[in-house]
Amino acid sequence: MEQERETLMLDNIKDSIKEKALEQHQEKLSQRLKVDKVGAAKKANEVSSVLTDHIVKGNELKLLTPPISESEEDEENEKDISTELREETSIVRERYKKLNTKEKQLLLDKYTIKDDEEDKKGK
Q: Is the pTM of this model over 0.70?
């Protein structure tokens, strides 16, 4: 029962990331920004796979391009978000260190992108 719950919880991480990516895509479309509409679901799935893989391996995620703010209030909110992200990342890293090898292996088996899958996609 416990193992099934953990598996469902791990599946939920990937699904949540995918849904958030699609939600952000829809927001940008509604703002009438120049956004590529082709293959959004496939790209969101790929992004969620990569991010989940990095989270499971314990890698730190950093934003490459910060959002553009329109006012000073937005800049203050962005600082709060970056601080919150840093704190959450450190909590996750600490919790990952506390896992036993069996639990770490379960995470790696569940979310690691396999080389075989990448080879099949390339062909």
A: no
Residue 68's CB is within 10 A of a number of other CB atoms, namely: 7
The residue behind tokens 């506390």 is 98
Q: What does the block give as tokens for 46?
A: 């790929």
Two tokens at 22? 């699609």
The tokens describing 82, both together, are 């970056």
Q: Give the closest residue to 9 by CA, choosing from 103, 122, 102.
A: 103
Nearest to 96 by CA among 55, 52, 49, 48: 55
Q: pLDDT tens-digit profile of 42-83?
A: 888 888 888 877 777 776 666 556 556 565 555 556 567 778
**What CA–CA distance (Å, rounded) separates 39 from 34?**
15
Comparing CA positions, the residue from 101, 10, 4, 88 lying closest to residue 56 is: 10
